[in-house]
Amino acid sequence: MMSTSDRSRLPLVYACSGCSSVAQLANAFAVRLDRSGQAEMSCISGVGGRVPALTRIAQSGRPILAIDGCQLACVKACLEGVGVVASRHLVLNRMGATKRQHGECTEAEEAATWQSIKLALSEILPVPESVAGN
User: Fold this and answer.
1) Mean pLDDT per segment of 10 residues, for the chain of length 134 residues?
2) For 66, what's the count of Cα atoms within 13 Å in the CB-facing half-sphere?
3) Per-domain boundaries in the chain
4) In which element (H, E) is residue 117 found?
5) Rounded (10°) CA dihedral 113, 38, 35, 58
6) Residue 125: what pLDDT?
7) Do residues 124 and 117 touch, judged by C-beta distance below 8 A?
8) How far apart are the first and last CA of the chain?
9) What is residue 101's DSSP assignment?
10) Residue 95 in contact with residue 72, Cβ under 8 Å?
11) Can you give the pLDDT at residue 131?
12) pLDDT recorded at residue 126
């Protein structure tokens, strides 16, 4: 398990967690990134609700991957409401996943969009000092 100080060096990930298939897929991707130590998931509801501690995390200057399920872009709106623009913003139903109410995304949709998530994350990762100094 990563220490708190190690986690604070990771990019932040915020995700939709609404009721549609793509919303739940966005949340599952954020959880996967968090649990695997690739990013630190933080609470977009707290940002939208202007909870001071969670707003400070969003405003900390760390790279942010924002994952919305659909064109409503609730994650993007919550971040912008506290003056934050994500480093990368992805909308899953614009990337090949179909928005379904009361249903799930297919395995093919999940696999295809996961590749895009990993690519977007790699684009915002800080360059290690050993590489940057050479």
Assistant:
1) 73 96 98 97 98 98 98 98 98 96 96 96 77 49
2) 23
3) 8-123
4) helix 107-124
5) -90
6) 87
7) no
8) 31
9) B
10) no
11) 46
12) 73
